[in-house]
Structure formats: C-alpha cells, structure tokens
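Sample 1 of the test manifest.
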Amino acid sequence: MENQGFRKNLINIEPYVAGEQPKNDNIIKLNANENAYPPSPEVQKAISGFDAAKLRLYPDFSGEPLKSTLAEYYGLKPAQVFVGNGSDDVLAAAFRAFFNSDMPILYPDVTYSFYPVWCDILRIPYKTIPLKEDFTIDVNDYAQPNGGIIFPNPNAPTSIALEKSEIVKLLDANRDVVVVIDETYIDFGGESCVDLLDKYDNLVLTRTFSKSRSLAGMRLGFAMASEELISYMNAVKDSYNSYPVDAVAIAAGVSAVNDDKYFKDTLAKVISTRERLAKALEDMGFTVAKSAANFLFAEHNKFTAQEIFNFLRDKGIFVRYFNKPRIDNRLRITVGTDEQTDKMISALKELIG
Amino acid sequence: MENQGFRKNLINIEPYVAGEQPKNDNIIKLNANENAYPPSPEVQKAISGFDAAKLRLYPDFSGEPLKSTLAEYYGLKPAQVFVGNGSDDVLAAAFRAFFNSDMPILYPDVTYSFYPVWCDILRIPYKTIPLKEDFTIDVNDYAQPNGGIIFPNPNAPTSIALEKSEIVKLLDANRDVVVVIDETYIDFGGESCVDLLDKYDNLVLTRTFSKSRSLAGMRLGFAMASEELISYMNAVKDSYNSYPVDAVAIAAGVSAVNDDKYFKDTLAKVISTRERLAKALEDMGFTVAKSAANFLFAEHNKFTAQEIFNFLRDKGIFVRYFNKPRIDNRLRITVGTDEQTDKMISALKELIG
C-alpha cells in the first residue's frame, strides 16, 4: 500500500449536517424548533448574579444541584437523573451505555436524523422500522428480536405523539433490551412516561432544556431511568468527559425548573399559537399532522414543499425542508410568536392566494 | 448462554476516578490544579451583562466568536482552531479523529491518567514509553513505528517541560503520524509549539481555559492545528454533539482572552508563589521537580507521600496523592494563593520540624 503519511490514520466519517443557522437579525427563524419565547426571568437573574470567582474551580461533576432539583420536580431519586451538555450529549451517552448488542437496534424510518450518525460512529447495528402511512408508530412492528429500541415521543419531524398505552405494549414486548424514549418535545402535549420508570427497569427517558425551557443556547439535557442504568451513563461520561455541564449552566437550569409558572404559561402560549397556525394552514390547503410538539409537519395539496420553502426563504422566513424519502414534500415549521406566525400566514397567502 | 435480559447489552467499562472534590468552604484545595485566582473582572462583566433572551436560540456550532478571538490571539486562521467543552472533550475528539491505526499510539508511562481511559473506550492500541529516571521525556524513545503520539507539555503530574528543540526532533522523526501535544499547563512557563504549526501539518496542540485562565467551572478547551486536521475534529464533533459550547461560555472565553494584562499578571503571581513554595519545600527536605506548571511534584527524604498526604488532609489541606507505580512516593501540590501557601508551609513544618 502507498504510504499516505499521517492521513492514513484520520477517521473516516460522514459529518452530520445541522439545520441552516442564518445570522441576520431581521429574519424569522422557524427552522430549528427553538422556543418562541425567552427563558424565565429567573434565569436572567441567576446568570446576572452569578459570582464569576467560583469559576476558578471545577463544577460539580454530576451536575449538582441541578440533578437534585430535577429529581424532586419529577418525583425521582437524584441517582435516577443524569445531566449532560445538551440532549445530544445525553443521547450519545445512552447509545454507548445501552446499545452494545450484535442484534440491531430498532428505530423509526422517519425520525431524528442523529440516530444513524451515532450508530455509524459507534458501530452499532440498526434496523429502521417504517412508520405507518399516516406517519404514526405501530408498536407491534417492534415486537421482534433486537438489541435495543429508541424513538422520540412525540416523534420528530412528524410532531406526532404515541399514546402511553401503546408504549406500555411496546415495553411489555421488549423487557430484554433497553428502551430509550427521547422526550425532547414531550412538554408540548405528549404523555410523559416518567411514571413508568418504577415498573420498567429497562426504560430510559431523555429530555432537553432547549425546547420547552427556552435554553438551547445553554446546552442542557438530562436522562431519567433506574439508578442502575443511570450509573452506566455516569460510567460512560466519566470515561470520556467528566465535567460536561458548567457551573453557570447548572445555576441557569435550577432557576428555570424552579419557575414552574413561567414554564407552564410559556407552554400554553406556544400550544395556543400552534393550534391557530395549524387551522390557518389547513384553511390554505395544507394537510397538517396532529402535533404534540412546538412545530408542525405540513404538506400542501398544490405547491411542493420545496417551492414553499424557497418562497418563504426569499421573504426572510426560514422553515425546515428535508430532501429525504417519504418526507420530501413536507415542511417542518417551528411555532413562533404570534407576530411571526401572522407574518408567515400573510406570506403564504401571497403565494397560495 | 443464560439470558441476562437487558443487562447483557450494557457497556463494560472501568470508570475514570476524578480527584477528590471536598465541599467544605474552609478547606484549602490544592488537589485539582485549579488557578489560585479568580478569572478576569471582564469575565464577571460578560456574564453579568449577558442577555438571557439570546439563550432561546442555539449557540454558534463552531464556538464563534471565541474561535476567531483565539485565532487572532495566536496568529492563526479561525479554521485552525477547534473549540470544545473543556480540554477533555477536545482531547477525546482528537483521539477519535487522529488515532485510527492498528499500530499502538505512544505516550509516557507517567502522564495524564485519562489517556488510557480514552484508549480503552475507543479501542485504540497503545504503548507506554517510560520516562527517564529523572521523570523527563527522552524523545529518542519515540523514534519507533507507531500509530500516533500524545504527551502533555509540561507533563503532568511531573510538572516538567520539554524543550522545543527536543520536540522538533520528535516531530522530525514522526512525520507519518499525528502528534498531539497537550499544552494544558504551557502558559505557566513552557515554550508553546504554536509557531511550529506552520511547518508541521501533522501537529495538534490542545489547550484549556481551566488552568491559566481560571475558568475550570466554565468548561472551555480548544485545539490548534492545520485547517485540514481541525476539519477532522469538527467532523468528529458534528457526529457526536454538534453544539458543545454554550453561549455564555463563549462570551466568557472571549472576555478572558481579551484581558491580556490580567492574564499575564495572574500568571506572574502564580509563578512567583510557585518558586517561593519550591524553595521552602526544598529547605524542608523535599526533592522538587523543576516545574513549568501551576503545581509542584515533590518527594520527601524522610516522610512518605502517603503520610504527608494524610497529615495535611487532617488539617483541611488537600493535595493529590497517586497510588501508582513510580510516583507513589510523590505528591502533586497545586500552587495556591500566598496565604494558602503560607498555611501549608506552616503545617508541613509542624510535621517535619
């Protein structure tokens, strides 16, 4: 073989491509499922009042006191919570901790696009299970030999939630593997499986502060599971990057969780705007999936998704278009403020008439 | 084989054990090589003045504007800088990006204890090269077939720096593999290899804000290399956790780099105290390695390291003791403030007389 020098040892991977992040302040950014509203005023207070002198020391390696605050909020023990640097960090730790079988893990064919990326980089065999025609999950399809299961609830980019009774069926048929449910969007209308953690010691739930708690810029995610499974996530963390959550992020997270009224008021506003937008889109000829998230998944009966995407982009309104099988005529539209929503509806009327 | 249920798929790893992190505010904590002084007042201003409303959006995925600020400071292009969630995150990305050979990577037998942990978890073959009797690196020992080289300069826990002329020899003998130099402690007295990046396209330097910039609690590290090598680190990041550095950390990092006077004044204070402490220890019968870091590596001619460690611990003074071959009679002592240093010297005098 030819001597390629040091290049022969470089990793061979296909990088994940994140959604477009336009910089212009005048644009309407509805393409990354960020929250329409800022975080709680308590978060501003926590950051502004943070004593920077404390930063000379390492933060708590397990994310305390955020871990205990989350445990109390969800009725769990602190040792049942794992805190990480965004839910991607948490999910990556879960893939490494729990998906170590020669059997393929299972996840939907239409889902979060990072799952195959982690499987490739971590050499985890996987098999995708097609969603039904209406983009819902049929839990019976997961009753087959596998090395683990992961899916988001609600699913992304479909926005559709799976009923808890269906999840129980899936869990009962899969007691021999770890089942990870990615509850990134659960606060916007799905039924959380937190209360199933007592019964299913093979269940892991992952969460983020990026969506319902308006803290995408702070990089905070967490997982909830049995103490045993969380101990494996900690072992993975401690073998890779021991202190993933900084001291300011810990303080911001605690203050966000403690302001439950702001949290619930913000969720109510997003949900109300989502329902108004869904109706307006349907009135214009869109088919809109029943959303339990802070975004809509919509297809028009006349204009292609690509046409609508380009039209809106030219108007400075950014939504998400996926050039992928099954969903290449659908748009994923983040629910913005009422003002942003009105501007988008007006723009669409211009195109659609 | 017996059916172990889901436990059969759990990862099998030996967790890294971090240094003790005592919580009591009254103790003197000299066991984690944290900076004796707080970060620049500009960091406090950046944090206190941070507009939390911005946190609803994702941060820049490449850590801008911190990346450009660092590039300008070190005379590089922004594309030659990689910013991560602490230098452990940066080092882990480097191990994944660059150490993909069937040949073993080489590193010193006495060095940062995370290297074998990453090798194990990432299944990288490695071979340790013994330091000389005086704990220095002999670069001739690295002129052998290998899959990559990594060492800290100054080395830890020895505190000893390698001369740049020796590093050039090592680089010249190893043009076919990636050489990573972990410059965690370089600001305290070693010669950085930043100016060698122009000549050696197989050289990677890693850095942290945790030591010389007093920001251990903020989780900021970075790497500097050719644009090509940095692009591989970005590919690794984008295949695992795309947004590792939060928006507040980015702002804090920029303000720390921009206050160069504070940075240099703080370094001068730490170095001055280090020299005073080294002399005091030598006067008490310690052998102290010539330190280019913010810590000392010392052995007493009468008392064992374990005895001294326990004695100091009982007095509320925490230093680091490693129960490991070759170094189990040495202590790693972080350079504290002058007041902390005086208290430790007094305590040691009590024991040693």
